């Protein structure tokens, strides 16, 4: 038998894939209780439909989806695999997956969704069946989880000081270059039972992936300018930039504002098609929980993101004051859970 592992291009996807490779090929116990060959395939949300054709053509009998947010493309891929009698394990932490979990369940053998990183969700699954991934891989899992929740280097005591930087920069490289050979190489290296000191990545990677000082300076200047128009909703800052245009992604601006104001940010903007978009950035699960709250209130047409970053496509005609009321309601009453 062959087990296909389809995971996102970033560090969370890579570390998650490495754990499954280790548990299936080295340990031979999860997800199948035998040592089986693993086919490693990086993908994004839109690419999964084409990936399923490769999976079927490669003789794969079981597929594990990791860190791939649920979408119409994923739904189509899952239905195709089910029609071919191929088993699926789906592990993810994105908001859209949590929202549509009941639609996913009939299409897969098992689905695991949570607010922490996908890598940590996989780690918890492996621990529950008695699989120890080793200290080195565990350190990368902790580094990814710290990054996903917006933590700083000092927040993870077990990790070597530069490991979070290495993981963050590696994630940028894999996501930008989309080199499948490099992605597979990294996954295989992480899955090898090597000692903690065996880290082949040098400072060259850091230099290659690190944003330029000019980029950081310009983004900070924009954040300082926008921050002046922010409005407080208890502990949250709400900022409307729908009538402004900036040469940077709105998510990057939201992150810069979050660092500057040191509080959760709600950024109201427009996408390329002129549709209103709400971006929520936090250092904890507030973005995740508030995003779900707004979705349940019916103001969201679609929602993406994970625990610290939510991207909400607003329904047409939604009044800003109505959104503000729902935010106040959420802060006063707290999250209702998934």
**The CATH topology of the largest domain, please?**
inorganic pyrophosphatase (n-terminal core)
Provide the structure class: alpha/beta
Ends apart, CA distance between termini? 36 Å
Strand content: 15-25%
DSSP summary, beta strand count: 11
- The radius of gyration over CA amounts to 20 Å
Q: What spatial order of strands do you see in the largest sheet?
A: 6-7-8-9-11-10
The gross shape turns out to be globular
Please write the CATH class name of the largest domain.
Alpha Beta
Overall mean pLDDT stands at: 89
Give the ordered list of helices and strands.
Answer: EHEHEHEHHEHHHHHHEEHEEHEEH
Largest sheet: 6 strands, mixed
Counted up, domains total 2
Q: What is the number of helices?
A: 14
Examine the secondary-structure arrangement and name the CATH architecture of the largest domain.
Answer: Alpha-Beta Complex
Specify the oligomeric state: single chain
Question: Helical percent range?
Answer: 40-55%
Query: Can you tell me the residue ranges where pLDDT is under 50 for at least 5 consecutive residues?
Result: 201-209
